[in-house]
Amino acid sequence: LVGSDGSIHPTIFAEMSALAARTGAINLGQGFPDEDGPTEVLEAARAAIANGVNQYPPGRGIPDLLVAVAEHQHRFYGVTLDPERDVLVTAGATEALAAALLALIGGPDDEVVVFEPHYDSYAAVVALAGARLVTVPLRWPDFQPDLDDLRRAVTDRTRVILVNDPHNPTGAVFGAPVREEVVRLAERHDAIIVTDEVYEHLVFDALHVPIATLPGAWERTLSISSGGKTFSATGWKIGWVTGPADLVDAVLAVKQFLTYVNGSAFQPAIATGLRLPDAFFLGIGETLAAKRDLLGRGLRAAGFAVSTPSGSYFTVADAAPLGATDAAAFCRELPHRAGVVAIPMTAFVTPERRGEYATLVRFAACKRVEVLEEAASRLAAAG
Ligand code: PMP
Ligand code: GLN
């Protein structure tokens, strides 16, 4: 994404969504839902606009959303947050990640340890912050890290261990030993844990466990989430960071000069969403699990080998059984050959490791059932 000359290229998501638009293909590339979220949340945004909530909100976020984030974390994870000190609203998880990394990274000798493949903004922001990215591979088909690899990656140079759980693009949900090792290593090497949990409610097998709830984790962890996935409103860009007040203040210090504030009318709407009954939050995981199963069956019937994700919007498939040797070329051709867009996994890995992921493709399951069925039948017909 960031060239050796420091230039920044268009993201893979922009490129592949443009390809979908140009070819009329079904877009199973970029992860966004093709249906609106809960009516209460949409209505709350309309009401806020009608009621004049249209100017700059406070720098930390509107008090009602800060309280709603704290209540939500208490309800689902038993975490007690001081809404005025331990919570910060950001322009999506993307800004939260950028502001957190820019705040924490001190200089070019600092290292950020991250699992790979990883969400594309991580490497870009680490490069913008001028630090070094150290990656720990997640391998097909279960995408759990090898703990020895993780131990080798974390050293006294590690400033941040950046964890994304549930994981984009692999769909992995990390086991307890992984979470525990992350905390142990962060304590031993005095690193900060930054955890991206935007898919916290999109889990299929077990409830999500935030790293911040582990013993020893809270004082060194910044947790990030967003309303985009949970409330099917990816364009609203209301995210938040939670953690100890001194760390959150450091993020605020950077955030105020990135966007200052954002989304005044969407903030009360996301607060409304965070207060929806438990059944809503369980329901979105169940609905998406059924779509994951539908997509997985379709991909297998079309000849792919398929990994079974435990969370997130995504399913990873191996196109090698279809004769593919280069997923990027395969994905460029797929819209023309089958009328479907997907993302090559090589887009999420550092160049040195692309060989290991050369035939893997990421498909998004967060689409309407009829869209997934149509994609499956197109892929089967294309063989
Ligand atoms: N992290 C991960 C892992 C994501 O998948 C996404 C959404 N694509 C983001 C962060 C960005 O979230 P937001 O839209 O809230 O900025
Ligand atoms: N999170 C989505 C994905 O991984 C889209 C992100 C984006 O477009 N930047 O597909």
UniProtKB/TrEMBL annotation:
Its cofactor is pyridoxal 5'-phosphate. GO terms for molecular function: transaminase activity. InterPro entries: Aminotransferase_I/II_large, Kynurenine-oxoglutarate_AT, PyrdxlP-dep_Trfase, PyrdxlP-dep_Trfase_major, PyrdxlP-dep_Trfase_small. SUPFAM superfamilies: PLP-dependent transferases (SSF53383). It holds the Pfam family Aminotran_1_2. Keywords: Aminotransferase, Pyridoxal phosphate, Transferase. Signal peptide: none annotated. Residues 25-378 form the Aminotransferase class I/classII large domain. This is Pyridoxal phosphate-dependent aminotransferase. It comes from Microbacterium deminutum.
